[in-house]
Amino acid sequence: MKNENIVVLKELLFRKKNIVIIPHTNPDGDAIGSSLALMHLLNSIDHNSTVISPNKAPYFLKWSPGFENIIYFDSDKNSCLKLIENADLIFTLDFNDLDRIGEMSKYVDSSNAKIILIDHHLNPKDYADLVFSDIEIGSTCELLFELIIELGHEKNIDSNIASCLYLGMMTDTGSFQYSSVTSRTHEIISKLIQKGINQSDIHNKVYNNSSISRLKVLGSALSNLNVLKELNTVYMYLKRDDLKKFDFQKGDSEGIVNYGLSLKNIIFSVMFIEDINDENNIKISFRSQDGFSCNEFANKHFNGGGHANAAGGRDDGPIEETIHKFKKLINKYKDNLTTNK
Fold first, then answer.
1. Structural domain boundaries enclosing 61
2. Quick one: pLDDT at residue 339?
3. Whose CA, among 79, 113, 187, 217, lies 20 to 30 Å from 208?
4. Which pTM value belongs to this model?
């Protein structure tokens, strides 16, 4: 991190401020973990900070310390607008393009507040006054930990902050299995354990707390799994009618795309999901290994992006046409998908 940016941030935080913290739409463990960790940290040093999320987070994150204090733009717009209007500082966490917060973007962009970006995704857009970005780090929570240390506030990390940081580090690294995990990642985990986290309990609350609807959604996705053997690729899909039948809840499809990579020789796994509320929207998840770039594929063909091995995208559908489009496109990448096998 640039020393001059740290100096500027220290100056901004020298006196008490009204602060808004914003994660991306459909926030995941890293977005919620980093936002809540920062909220606790800022409040511990006498700031007045609030997390505003564009919409609700998945049910399996509700245990996160401070989760009950999150305000949601889609259900309490007036309160959120007042907070944004009165904010001295706005932190945007785990995203680097204001498009990722939907309608909120125009209010943040026109705010008089200083905007601070903290994120680890590729190609940050130029909207923030102060940028802390590192695409080599596996999670925004890991980046935030380093920032807290640079600011001289390690002593303020209690078990609540540590639990939130561990949540983001765990979920955004696939429980520490991705190539973005380094020896420094494990050093930080050691420090968080010393702060009093229960890492086994956190893992169970996130991964072993499934609803009946989630298991039915998983079963449906796996029953719709197709293998493109010659391309070391699998794809799955979920139809809107099935999601309604299973009483689909936000977060029920989280992580299912990873199951494709558990198959022998598979390099690329893709999941197509019909938006339950929008007939013209197909949400797509991409996961890869062995050097195949999800981010490049999603960005070039499906209006998306993310990380090298984990990205998202969308298409207008219908889903049959989207899958047909995908199958035609993926054939062009045969050399990239078969060279290592």
1. 3-207
2. 58
3. 187
4. 0.90
Give residue-wise pLDDT tens across range 95-133: 999 999 999 999 999 999 999 999 999 889 999 999 999
> What stretches in the chain show pLDDT beneath 50?
341
173: its two tokens = 């690294």
Tokens coding 23: 């994660």
Q: Are residues 55 and 95 in the same domain?
A: yes
15 — phi, psi (to 5°)?
Answer: -115, 160
| Calculated CA dihedral for residues 82, 83, 86, 91, nearest 10 degrees | -140
* Residue appearing with tokens 């054939």: 331
pLDDT tens sequence across 188-230 = 999 999 999 999 999 999 999 888 999 999 999 999 999 999 9
- CA angle 163–67–205, rounded 5-degree value: 55
133 contacts: CB under 8 Å, gap ≥ 6: 96, 117, 118, 119, 120, 121, 124
Kindly state whether residues 45 and 120 are assigned to the same domain.
yes
Please list, in sequence order, all residues whose beta carbon lies within 8 angstroms of the beta carbon of residue 42, skipping any fewer than 6 positions away.
13, 19, 21, 49
CA–CA distance, 214 with 202 (Å, rounded to integer):
19
d(CA 310, CA 325): 20
Q: Indicate the residue among 156, 187, 207 that finishes a domain.
A: 207
Q: What pLDDT score does 1 carry?
A: 67
